[in-house]
Amino acid sequence: MAHTIEVTGLRKRYGDVRAVDGVTFAVEEGEFFGILGPNGAGKTTALEIIEGLREPDEGEVSVLGMSPWPRNPALLPRIGVQLQASSFFERLTAREQLQTFGSLYGVPAGKADTMLELVGLDDKADVQVEKLSGGQAQRLSIACALVHDPEVVFLDEPTAALDPQARRNLWDVLREISRQGRTVVLTTHYMDEAEVLCDRVAIMDAGRILRLGPPAVLVRGLDAPSRISIPSGALTVEDAQALPGADQAADDGVSLTVTTRDPSAVIAAIAARDALDGVQIHGATLEDVFLQVTGREYRA
């Protein structure tokens, strides 16, 4: 497939800090691509360079076959950008916000209602933006980025600080954007979000890409044991430890958890003891991959 975005040897320094340090990757047409990393990993700086908001110190960036820097008037109508913090015009309603943003691109005023429906805000069309909830404001921000029908959409931590319900609602919006054939680039530090939404992810830390690939492939490449849990009391810890294939067993008073690299043997042994009621099997996740390559220390 054609590459919509190509990034080669990208670098950006602030004094002694290497915010982006030799980043190289490509995003295919129609792909949902995630950039993951802890705070300070450089993902937002990299995204802003690709969007044309910052000038790189070194490297090359191509978006839809064009360089985004210096600001390229031919490229701007073809990309949509949702920043970490969005500012709206005061006292305008949701519909008026979209009509105003759309007018900058020559979009008919009637397109606003179509976009409000797409992001599930059609019932908030006449509500001033100051009265929208955090999740509603985020959805409106995404609608503003899409109102001119861009080919490529950049989303910088769109679900940050949202409650679980608002996050899930926004995921539905992002899936619909992807289904429409747009290329989407997302930065996030929510691993479950990336695992659900993204075709491929790049895990960044200290300005560098440490892992790159489909989430499922990265998870399968992690040499991590499975965890099998059953209700506490179904087996003793000693009996669980003696199961074929069991590496470790622990009981916290709620669940008995067996760690194993041979889950099929453990499950078969638990079934033979008629103790399968309430069984849960937990394999490795993208979060496990993330923690393995970025470490577990606290990031401010």
Describe the structure.
GO terms for molecular function: ATP binding; ATP hydrolysis activity. It is found in: Cell membrane. It is a peripheral membrane protein. Residues 5-231 form the ABC transporter domain. One of its GO terms (biological process) is response to antibiotic. The chain is of the alpha/beta class and 300 residues long. It has two domains: 3-220, P-loop containing nucleotide triphosphate hydrolases (Rossmann fold, 3-Layer(aba) Sandwich); 226-283. It is 31% helix and 28% strand. It has ten helices and 13 strands. The chain has helices at residues 43-51, 94-103, 111-118, 134-146, 164-179, 191-197, 215-220, 237-241, 263-272, 286-294, and strands spanning 3-14, 17-28, 32-36, 58-63, 79-82, 152-156, 183-188, 200-205, 208-213, 226-231, 246-251, 255-260, 280-282. Strands 5-6-7-3-8-9 form a six-stranded mixed β-sheet, with helices on both faces. The chain has a four-stranded antiparallel β-sheet with strand order 11-12-10-13. The longest helix has 16 residues, at 164-179. The two termini are 39 Å apart.
